[in-house]
Design brief:
Blueprint (H helix, E strand, L loop, with lengths): L2 H22 L7 H13 L3 E4 L6 H11 L4 E5 L6 H5 E6 L4 E6 L6 E5 L6 H13 L1 E4 L2 E4 L5 E6 L12 H4 L4 E4 L5 H11 L13 H13 L4 H15 L10 E3 L3 H17 L7 H12 L4 E2 L1 H5 L4 H11 L4
Parallel strand pairs: 1-8, 1-9, 2-5, 5-8
Antiparallel strand pairs: 3-4, 6-7, 10-11
Helix pairs in contact: 1-8, 2-10, 9-10, 10-11
């Protein structure tokens, strides 16, 4: 399939996305970046780490998407007393039968909202992150495959740090995106108040199903990315590891892993799809780069002392790397 045919197919399938966004606007105001990231995550099997204060429609957005895509959804409130069995399930002994029965946990859903993931101890975080990576869990010595598609949307509150367990950098790397949510604008908040101040149960239309999701996933994999653009992505990732070569001496403690190269390529293709194109542009790469890289680059103490944020470092990298 050439690029023209691919673009035609992409435009056809993108009609579903336009309908989803129109339907979602009934319950969500603004938050376009979060919605696009959720869609890209679902269509590329990429998990998302959301950082933002409570009340920014995270639960509403992901629950609504699950409803419109005919997918199962579970919300898990992470707490310090949560156990791995509460997440993945356990075996229960039935005395009258003299045997064990497996009771599956909430992880067996298409979309999981792991609310305040940093409130759960490391054992629970590890159980979730292992499931994310392997797409399977082991209960009582038996392996169970998770439902597909499988997306974990994990949230953490950037303000309240008391009683929290920070996600280790190596495990945070398993998330495709780290999205930072901001407060709505004044106009958006007016619209939110207007829509939500009156109780009105809104039912959302089912727009796509697993079959269409798989069709879109296969189409995104075929989206054309030029060799020069692939080289551009590699140059960006290597710049995070070799900062001294582009004038970033002492700012980066360690750079992005090979997962970043893979995820940046996948996300750029998904962004091209959302833009109704069958090919990737440098703008697609730049558009998703911060969300892909911000949790994969560890800036140095010297950079922190100079009040340089990881987003500033990413901007400097893009300023230094030549666009093909």
């Amino acid at each position: 399939m050439n690029v023209e045919e691919l673009t035609y197919r992409v435009k056809q399938e993108n009609e579903h996305i336009l309908r989803i966004k129109a339907e979602l606007s009934k319950v969500i105001v603004g938050q376009e970046n979060m919605i696009n990231s959720l869609l890209m995550g679902i269509f590329t099997d990429g998990h998302i780490l959301l950082e933002g204060v409570p009340g920014l429609a995270k639960t509403t957005a992901v629950k609504s998407l699950a409803e419109m895509m005919d997918l199962s959804f579970k919300r898990i409130q992470f707490t310090p007393d949560l156990l791995p069995a509460d997440l993945i399930g356990t075996q229960i002994y039935i005395p009258k039968d003299g045997d064990f029965v497996t009771r599956k946990g909430p992880i067996f859903s298409n979309i999981i909202l792991a609310d305040e993931i940093n409130r759960a101890p490391s054992k629970v975080q590890s159980a979730l992150l292992e499931a994310m990576e392997e797409k399977q869990v082991t209960i009582g010595g038996e392996t169970y495959f998770l439902d597909r598609p499988f997306l974990v949307l994990a949230t953490q509150n950037p303000i309240d740090q008391e009683g929290t367990y920070q996600i280790p950098e190596a495990q945070a790397d398993r998330f495709m995106f780290k999205i930072k949510l901001s407060y709505p604008t004044r106009e958006e908040e007016k619209e939110i108040v207007k829509k939500m101040s009156v109780y009105n149960k809104i039912s959302l239309e089912k727009i796509i199903n697993k079959e269409i999701i798989n069709t879109i996933k296969n189409l995104i994999e075929q989206i054309y990315i030029d060799d020069k653009l692939q080289e551009y992505i590699i140059n960006i990732i290597f710049a995070t590891r070799e900062g001294e070569k582009i004038g970033l001496e002492g700012l980066i403690e360690y750079g992005a892993s090979p997962r970043a190269s893979i995820n940046l390529t996948k996300a750029a293709k998904a962004k091209a799809f959302l833009s109704s194109r069958g090919y990737v542009t440098p703008a697609d790469v730049k558009n998703v780069a911060k969300d892909i890289l911000r949790h994969r680059i560890k800036i140095s103490y010297e950079a922190e002392a100079e009040n340089i944020k990881v987003e500033d470092v990413i901007d400097r990298i893009f300023n230094k790397i030549a666009i093909p």
